[in-house]
Amino acid sequence: MTTKNFQPQLQHFEQMCKDAGLKVTHQRLEIYRELLGSLDHPSAETLYKRLEKRLPALSLDTVYRTLATFEKLCLIHRVETVESQARYEALTTRHHHFLCDTCGQVFDFAWHSFDAMTLPSGLAEIGAVARTSVVVHGTCAACARKDQQNDTPEQAVVQPIITSTR
Known about the structure:
The radius of gyration is 24 Å and the shape is globular. The strands form 2 sheets. A 3-stranded mixed beta sheet has the order 4-3-5, with no helix packed on it. Strands 1-2 form a two-stranded antiparallel ribbon. Strand 3 and strand 4 form a beta hairpin. The chain starts with 6 loop residues before the first helix and ends in a 15-residue tail after the last helix. By secondary structure, the chain is an alpha+beta fold. 39% of the residues lie in helices and 13% in strands.
């Protein structure tokens, strides 16, 4: 995807940084761009590996600190996974997540009826809700197919019995 596809998000990003008193550095911009173009919810380590060739001065520590800053500014969302390794995404449209407990992939899905629901009144007594999201755990279709193939007993090779009646 090209930068033009993300122009509104990049303008929002730059404005949020300026409003927070942060410089829009080349490293911050590249980390955010990479997240905008990523559909796989990369970890900090994955982001670092993708960016290290383009940004040789980038350190893994800088990636972690930048992600933490972006999260505080509500520019990105951290998705906690089963393997306890946080994965990240740029916040663009409202959606939820399906986490495959087998392969670790994270899939986005929309659930408009959930988004339209009124929260329970008792939550106001607990505190102010900033956002809601659903994380569904299960087995993705690809892993389920693999499991099904592995569980299918091997077909015995049947040799025809040929008898001769002369």
